[in-house]
Amino acid sequence: MAADTSAIIAAAGSSSRMGGENKQFLDLCGMPVIARSMLAFQNCNDIAEIILVARAEDIPKMQEIAKSAGISKLSTVVPGGSTRQESVINGLKAVSKETSMLCIHDGARPLIMSELISKTIADARVFGGATLGVPTKDTVKTVSGGLIIDTPDRSKLYLIQTPQAFKKSVYFEGVNFAISHGLDFTDDCQLVEAVGIKICLTQGDYKNIKITTSEDIFIARALMEGTGCV
Questions:
Q1: Distance in angstroms (rounded) separating the CA atoms of residues 38 and 73
Q2: Could you say which of 2.40.40.10, 3.90.550.10, 2.40.10.170, 3.40.50.1820 is the CATH number of the domain covering 5-225?
Q3: What's 46's DSSP letter?
Q4: What pLDDT, in 10s, does the model give residues 45-86?
């Protein structure tokens, strides 16, 4: 099957929980975090193009990093919006008309593997949408006013990761619904679920962590070093 999927990599966050330091540019075994993320999509046979969404002031540096990393599938870098949803929509505007699938990923998940990207896309072809996820290892409590009020069944709880993949027509339907109803979602699956689509849960990998706080980059480096730091 010819590559028919547009990847939108969201990397326009403020990095507020990193003390203002842009986590996309942190070194991860000799390469910036965002370069690692892009490489996984570069090496995935299903991906036809990569659209990177970044803060406007970071675009020149992002382009330089992509060039240095040999990301030939990068078609453009577009500025982000004030929310994640707005940022992804900005990326959506740059998607090729020829592609039929979308794969949306957090740039701060640099340990994603190409085979998991393909697996998520394959499930989305069948169900309309799919997301990576892993079972929670911890007991989760519902809390109100500082008191525990419920303990959900852990066997039904999953930690959702990216990428999340969708048929392009389905995702556009979700975007139109959100805009027309003034809704803003932090998760792409929520946007598609809003128009009645049931999302497939594709089994992910616990190593597919998100760089959110300062300790996460050390965990990512340790995970990479354990595999030879390649």
A1: 9
A2: 3.90.550.10
A3: T
A4: 999 999 999 999 999 999 999 999 999 999 999 999 999 999
